Structures are given as structure tokens and as C-alpha cells.
Amino acid sequence: GAVVSQHPSRVICKSGTSVKIECRSLDFQATTMFWYRQFPKQSLMLMATSNEGSKATYEQGVEKDKFLINHASLTLSTLTVTSAHPEDSSFYICSARGGGGEAYEQYFGPGTRLTVT
Amino acid sequence: AQSVTQLGSHVSVSEGALVLLRCNYSSSVPPYLFWYVQYPNQGLQLLLKYTSAATLVKGINGFEAEFKKSETSFHLTKPSAHMSDAAEYFCAVSGGSGSARQLTFGSGTQLTVLP
Description:
Shape of chain B: globular
Distance between the termini of chain B: 41 Å
Strand content of chain A: over 45%
Oligomer: heterodimer
Largest sheet of chain B: 6 strands, mixed
Helix content of chain A: under 10%
Radius of gyration of chain B: 14 Å
Order of helices and strands of chain B: EEEEEEEEEEE
Largest interface: A-B, 23 and 24 residues
Number of helices of chain A: 0
Shape of chain A: globular
Largest sheet of chain A: 7 strands, mixed
């Protein structure tokens, strides 16, 4: 149980275009989803926290107009990188937390490698 | 506020040798502590967690960690390394309460297992 998927696993896009990344909880209802960014050889940095049906809470320094997060259902959250630039190239990982589980339990997706050319 | 420090960004051990990955934390509230493993181009897999119960925590794949409050440490160990243990390991702390519990990750330790 507690499986989280991400799609796509890998995407290459041109500078100036927008890219949408999906995060799904496959076998539980995710009341909260988290989006992380990971640069090569570095740790995960929390970008934002989203609760189903409400606006995401962004961490300091993360542009909410550039990284649009939608959590419209209990099994799906999307991250849209708008007007992507090469510096947005990174590994994006989502995690999900169910309402019935412990508050600390997060289940991670496999990640999405974004390359902006 | 909470933070995690992982000492040693790279650790190399021989196959069959003891694995010791160090983690020290800082938290203004009693912490929950975690170790995750990440294989290349994959997400994170939970190895083990400390949530204020037993201070010696056993996880998957033969790993264990001991919570030492006096040392603010949560070091990860495994008695005998296997080639498949080669990966990136992250220590994380979760402070706060309820929905405010977020994870703060350390910078990671790359474990290499030599034949």
C-alpha cells in the first residue's frame, strides 16, 4: 500500500514553454501533498505544501506564479512550471500524506527529471 | 526551527564491513527522525523512523538507528554492507505538531560499497 506515482518520469522542454507534472496517490486518499526540488548531488528542498481543495502554501523564495500547484482531488496534485528556463532544470519529487495516517508519514513518488533547453 | 546535519557527504566501505552514517539534529520540539534511501533517478524510500517510542529503531534491509537525545544524534548503522546498499542516504527531522509536521532533510551521504 501507500504508493505514489509521478508522470512523466522524464521531460525535456524548450525555454519559455510550460510543463505539467502529475502526482497521484494510487491506493490512499492524500489530504496533503508536498512538492520538493532536488538539485544534483543535493538534498530535497520543500517547495510547497498543498491541501486538497485549498491553495498551496509556498516556502520562502519559491515563486508561486512560476510554480503553479493544484490539488483538486484527494488523489491528484499537479505542479506546472510556467515559462520554464534552464535554471528550472531539476529533479522534482512529490510526496503524499493521508488523512488517516500519522501526521509525519509521507510517501514519496519516484520523481520527475525536468530538463529545459 | 529544525535542522539536520549529516557528517560526511561520501562514505566508502568494503562489502561485509560495518556501515555508519552520521546524523545530528536540532529541533525546538521533541523530534521525529527518519532515514531515507534514494537510488539514482528514483524517489525516496523510508528505511526507518523514530517517533518517541524505543530509542533503538530497526528498519528494512538490516539497517538500524539509535536516538540519543544527549548527543542529538540519530546515526544509521548496518553490521555488514552489501553491494546493493550503495545509494544516497538522507536523514530527516520532523518537528511541529499535527499538519505542521514537515520534513527537513540533511544534505545526504553517498554510500559506496567496495568489492
